[in-house]
Amino acid sequence: MTMSIYNAPLQDMRFILNDVFKAEQFWQSNEKLEHVDMDTVNMILEEMAKLSKNILLPINREGDEEGATHKIGADGKGEVTTPAGFKDAYKEYAEAGWIGLGGDPEYGGQGFPKMVTMLAEEMMFTTNQSFALYPNLTVGASLALLASASEQQKQTYLEKLYSGEWSGTMCLTEPHAGTDLGIIKTKATPNDDGSYDITGTKIFITAGEHDLTSNIVHLVLAKTPNAPAGSKGISLFVVPKFHFDENGNLGERNNMSAGSIEHKMGIKASATCVMNFDNAKGWIIGEENTGLAAMFVMMNYERLTMGLQGLGGTELAYQNALVYANDRLQSRSDSGVKNPDKSADQLIHHADIRRMLLNAKANSEASRCFAMYVAKQLDTAKFSTDKEVAKAANARVALLTPITKAFLTDKALESTVDCQQVFGGHGYIREWGMEQIVRDTRIAQIYEGTNGIQSLDLLGRKVAKNGGAFMADFIAEIREFVKNMSSEHSIKQATLSAANTLEGLTKTVLANISERKDEINGCAVDYLHATGYLCYAYMFAMMIEAANGKDGEFYNNKAKLADYFVARILPRINAHAEMVQAGSEPMMAFDLDYFKPAEA
Ligand SMILES: Cc1cc2nc3c(=O)[nH]c(=O)nc-3n(C[C@H](O)[C@H](O)[C@H](O)COP(=O)(O)OP(=O)(O)OC[C@H]3O[C@@H](n4cnc5c(N)ncnc54)[C@H](O)[C@@H]3O)c2cc1C
């Protein structure tokens, strides 16, 4: 079996942290982050680099072959077994404290900022996307609890979640309700003791059942009797798999079970469960009918994480395609024989192979930088003591979250396919591992709100709703940055021009929206992509500025990669802008009859 290789790109990570975002300076200037120092952070990165390479990568491919399995146990309840090696890896992972890395120290977390945890997450997603989902759902659930649960609930759950003794889930989706959570049917009936009886079926629940932890804490969206219709009538409940006493000792099983697991295209080692709740006992988090807002805390976090899943897929695909392109001998180079002792030259000499590799490399570097930019905004929003600064950071996070989720994962699938293509036919064969990366990465475009829905969120809620104010602020920041650049690299002008494109495009689209009802829906995806390319241009500008004046191949190559981006990737922004300008009419011009399925 061919084994995938992975070496954590620590030099790139440190470049982004230290040179581009001046992390240490940022932490020192924020009293709530003063305790974070670069020596510790370097140790964290090195430890995760080892763990992901030595523990998570080796079980990635077997996990895909074996998958998670489901059976009905002696007690009539569904049981899920994770693939060989997952239990040991999880134990090691949890015991080393990784799950609580960004957790609140008041409840046993380690309090590291997102700028640090995102790099650990990247490495984990790079080496094992299925595995990464188990702890990530736990981290997301603890964030939702931290934001909205009562003090007693926090005391009860957070420490056990951070330590990895228990795990978390988010139970939103139902068979008839995915995107549109306003129409969920799961019921929550209040009991006299303050608890609720939860009844309903949730589907597609990641880590809904598994054998990695002693208890599973489900966060479930449900409707109380007489709740208002739609998304204003949704409440959030915490529903543990096992009941427990005040010391956390597990008791009886709650009335719920995993009815089955899905057979999927990828992330096969991640158990995607149908969860049947049958008068399961649950406790409300926050007030009735505020559940969706509470859940959004978790969802926003997960959306950034999905961007990191995409980055991980890209990085693994790129590193392995690079090995192949250096080994595989096929055809002579157009510019003359490079390998006279052999009958052919290595793939890496062909310009088209380089195109595919550089697409992936540019995506990996820009998306890591962008994720770090968003992480810094998240940290500013969370830790800044200046209310105005925190508010501005929150607005920036709101604007960029759909881009982090959708653009990073769309570009990731493209990158993984490019890298698979480098392998020719071998890329399609299981033993090389490339087709698994493509299959695993594909889900990131779909779950956590499809990329189409992310685009609607961007153009509808984050741009149109405030007349483009968030976008105008972002463009102003980009212009200011570019104006002050000391480097004269072509990225400077290219970024400015991309910012102008977006400014004009936003004006056009806002004008069209008022006349055409379907305009947002019809333009959103291309608008998001145009914005995504602007964001990447800005990231390359930041990287170039940070590399400016520094000697060495590493920095020179940053300039060359930015050249490649400007010449061979960024021009796509114009195509997306043209498509947005064309609007929704080309789709809506058809009569409904045109879309009638063929009759037999
Ligand atoms: C492997 C896996 C793991 C998952 N894990 C979880 C989990 O842990 N917890 C959980 O609750 N859910 C989970 N999900 C569910 C996932 O979040 C949903 O599948 C997703 O949000 C889409 O919902 P849906 O499948 O019902 O599609 P639908 O909502 O039916 O959407 C179908 C298509 O229509 C589009 N669409 C819908 N509405 C509009 C609109 N207004 N305008 C334009 N287009 C629209 C969508 O973009 C999509 O392309 C998971 C799913 C999978 C496959």
Question: Quick gist of this model?
Answer:
This protein has 600 residues and is an alpha+beta fold. Helix 6 crosses helix 9, helix 10 packs antiparallel against helix 11 and helix 11 packs antiparallel against helix 13. It starts with 9 loop residues before the first helix and ends in a 12-residue tail after the last helix.
The helicity comes to 40-55%
As a whole number of angstroms, the C-alpha radius of gyration is: 24 Å
Count helical runs. Answer: 19
Mean pLDDT: 96
Could you tell me the strand content as a percent range?
Answer: 5-15%
> What's the shape?
globular
**Topology pattern, helix = H, strand = E:** HHHHEEHHHHEEEEEEEEEHHHHHHHHHHH
Report the span from N to C terminus. 46 Å
Structural class by sheet pairing and helices = alpha+beta
User: Which ligands, by name, code or SMILES, are bound?
Assistant: flavin-adenine dinucleotide
Overview of the molecule:
It is globular and about 80 Å long. The model has no long low-confidence stretch (mean pLDDT 96). The chain is built from 19 helices and 11 strands. Strand 4 (187-190) and strand 5 (196-206) form a beta hairpin. The protein has helices at residues 10-20, 23-28, 38-56, 60-66, 86-95, 114-127, 129-148, 151-162, 291-327, 351-383, 387-422, 434-442, 451-463, 469-483, 490-515, 519-547, 553-569, 572-582, 585-588; strands spanning 69-72, 78-81, 166-171, 187-190, 196-206, 215-222, 235-240, 242-244, 250-253, 256-261, 272-285. The protein is α+β, with helices and mostly antiparallel strands and 600 residues long. The structure holds flavin-adenine dinucleotide. Flavin-adenine dinucleotide is lined by residues 170-173, 178-179, 204-206, 264, 272, 443, 446-450, 452-453, 456, 521.
